[in-house]
Amino acid sequence: MTGRFTGCTSLEYEVVAAGSSGGLAYLIAIERITATANGVPTSCALRATTLFRKEDGTCKAAHRHGDPCRQGE
After folding, report:
1. What residues form DSSP beta bridges with 18?
2. Which of 29, 64, 59, 34 is nearest to 47 (CA)?
3. C-alpha distances out from residue 8 to 15, 31, 33, Å
4. What residues does 64 pair with on adjacent strands?
5. Which residues face 4 on adjacent strands?
6. What is the mean pLDDT of the chain?
7. Pick the residue with more confidence: 69 or 2?
8. pLDDT (tens digit, 9 = 90+) per residue, 15-46?
9. Partners of 16 in the β-ladder
10. Which of the residues 2, 37, 45, 52 has the least number of beta carbons within 10 Å of its own beta carbon?
């Protein structure tokens, strides 16, 4: 699915794995979203990996990658 999301009505995370070591952390999750995409209401799920790093005492997202889930995943 490509395009611009607007009007998000729900977002849920199903955490698959998470961890941290030193100043780095990661979160692997299934993200389920209901929003409008290209003017059409839609729901989708993404497999997303987010990497975090500690910066000035605060944990900040350094990288995120998401791929659409195939049906049944």
Report:
1. 27
2. 29
3. 20, 13, 7
4. 50
5. none
6. 88
7. 69
8. 999 999 999 999 999 999 999 888 888 898 99
9. none
10. 2
Side by side, which strands form the sheet with 40-55?
Answer: 5-21, 24-37, 40-55, 58-68
Residues 6 or more apart whose Cβ sits within 8 Å of residue 39: none
As to burial, measured by CB atoms within 10 angstroms (0-12 exposed, 13-18 middle, 19+ buried), residue 63 is: exposed
Given this model, what pLDDT does residue 1 score? Answer: 47
Rounded-to-integer distance, Cα 8 and Cα 25, Å: 27
Question: N- to C-terminal Cα distance for the chain?
Answer: 16
Alpha-carbon distance values, 29 to 7, 13, 41, 64 (Å): 22, 6, 23, 11
- pTM exceeding the 0.85 threshold for the entire prediction: no
